[in-house]
From TrEMBL:
<dbReference type="Pfam" id="PF00571">
    <property type="entry name" value="CBS"/>
</dbReference>
<feature type="domain" description="CBS">
    <location>
        <begin position="86"/>
        <end position="139"/>
    </location>
</feature>
<dbReference type="InterPro" id="IPR051257">
    <property type="entry name" value="Diverse_CBS-Domain"/>
</dbReference>
<feature type="domain" description="CBS">
    <location>
        <begin position="11"/>
        <end position="69"/>
    </location>
</feature>
<dbReference type="InterPro" id="IPR000644">
    <property type="entry name" value="CBS_dom"/>
</dbReference>
<protein>
    <submittedName>
        <fullName>CBS domain-containing protein</fullName>
    </submittedName>
</protein>
<dbReference type="InterPro" id="IPR046342">
    <property type="entry name" value="CBS_dom_sf"/>
</dbReference>
<keyword id="KW-0129">CBS domain</keyword>
Amino acid sequence: MKKRTPISKIMTTDVITLNHTHGLETAEKLFKEHNIRHIPVVSGDAIIGMLSYTDLLRISFADAVNVETNEVDTVVYEMFTIEQVMAKNLVSVSSTTTIKEVAEILSMREFHALPVIDHGKLVGIVTTTDLINFLLEQF
């Protein structure tokens, strides 16, 4: 395993984003359509937050979730905005950050995705799944 491999080698570069003005129903549709669990939230060119599928489930009420299908009753979505639900105090990395450094950050925090930002621009996203897949390739 190469110790200085940059995160750019394993990050997702074709990033699905949400505008902060989108609704939570749009967010759920994107999560399911693209089979993803984290979406950066942008305002113009600036990333202002990160929304996870878990965030959507967290705002739902116990009786509003169909446990068998993991679907949320969309009535709940009308009660909140993306900005109210998303994580705002983001930790980000650059594309030159090493895979080891990213693994250290994610292992010490309670989130599972990091936006990758170069020169103020969102260039990718890296998740714990990306790290696990990289690790599996090493065997």
